[in-house]
Structure formats: C-alpha cells, structure tokens
Amino acid sequence: MEPSTEYVAFEEKVKKTIYIDNLSPQVTKAVLQNAINQFGNVKDVQFIPTYFASCGVCAALVEMESAKQAEEIICEMGDSPLMISGMPRPVRARKAQVEMFEDRPKKHQRTIVCRWMDPSHQNFELAKKIKDLTKKHAAEAQYIMELQLKEEEKLHKQQSETLQTNYRKYELIDGAQADGNVNRLKAEYGIKLNDH
C-alpha cells in the first residue's frame, strides 16, 4: 500500500525540520526564529509540549528551507551552545521525527482500535512489562532533566556573579575617571593616555 501524496509531502517537511528542546519558557517564537536565522532561513516555528520534562523546559519544531540547512544546524548546535537573549543556554537539537507532529496525516487509511486487555490474556504480562518499562524511562528522564536544570542554575549563578564583578570593575574605572584620579596618576607617573 503506497502512502498518500499528502503524507509524502509531510515526510519532506519532517526532513527539513529540527527538534529543539531544553528551551527556557521565556523564549518566544520571534526570539527562537531570530536565533536560528543565524544558521539559515526559518520557515516556521511550532512549540510542542514536553510530556516527560519538568514544567520549566520547553521544546519546539523549527522548519528550515532545506534538509541540508537542518543538518548543518544540528551539527553546529552540537558543537556550541545556542545564544538566546545574550545568554548561552545549552539547548539540544536533533532531527525531527514523524511522531513529534500532532497534525501529521495518516500514512495509510487504517483505524487503530484500543481496548482493555483481560488479565487472563496471554500477552497481559508482556503489556504490563512494557507499561512498567515506560514508567521507569519516564522517571529516569525526569531525574536527568532535574539534574541538568540544577547544572544550568549553577551556570546561571556563576555567569551572574561574573557579570556583577565586571560591572563593578567598570564602575570603579568610571568613578576614577570622573573624580580626576586618572588625570592625577597620569601626571604623577608621566603616562600618556588616550581619552577614548
């Protein structure tokens, strides 16, 4: 059975789309589009829910003009952190998967039927193991995300302290120039300084 033409066009869209997660909730469509436009032309940005991550993390599907641009962005973002609003945030990028799109068309015209499985059914234990394994994976993913968020908070705190320290240094320099101490030191030691 051949997939429909609508599904073939959708598969082409998937090839040109990258999945970006670990985004801050403050990131808007325009901010993300501007950040990714550094690497290529963004056609569309769609935020999607992150079911296994904590509420402080967002994800998005970003459609590029070509599949080549999408691959280049994935390589580039793997090598260095993405700058969003002037702060490096270690977001992850990877190829989008068909299952990530909520509005995906059906590949074949078939219906999926779900039903309760009787505990006496021969595959009940297998289904229960799969369900338990899924819960375990979700718990592990949640734990890893929490560890990563702690690391990011630590990095943010360190960057804020560095920024404050540098700001205080510039204030000291400006204060020394404003009260004339620089001119006195310049005259005292016979140093020529540019006023720029």
Written as H for each helix and E for each strand, in order along the chain, the element string is HEHEEHEEEHH
Structural class: alpha+beta
Low-confidence stretches: none
Distance between the termini: 73 Å
Question: How are the strands ordered across the major sheet?
Answer: 2-3-1-6
Count helical runs: 5
| Rg, Cα atoms, Å | 26 Å
Strand content: 15-25%
| Tally of strands | 6
What does this structure look like?
- 49% of the residues lie in helices and 16% in strands.
- By secondary structure, the protein is an alpha+beta fold.
- It has a four-stranded antiparallel beta sheet.
- The chain is elongated, with a radius of gyration of 26 Å.
Q: How would you describe this structure in keywords?
A:
about 200 residues, alpha+beta, 4-stranded antiparallel sheet, two-stranded antiparallel ribbon, elongated
Offer a quick outline of the entry.
49% of the residues lie in helices and 16% in strands. The protein has five helices and six strands, in the order αβαββαβββαα.
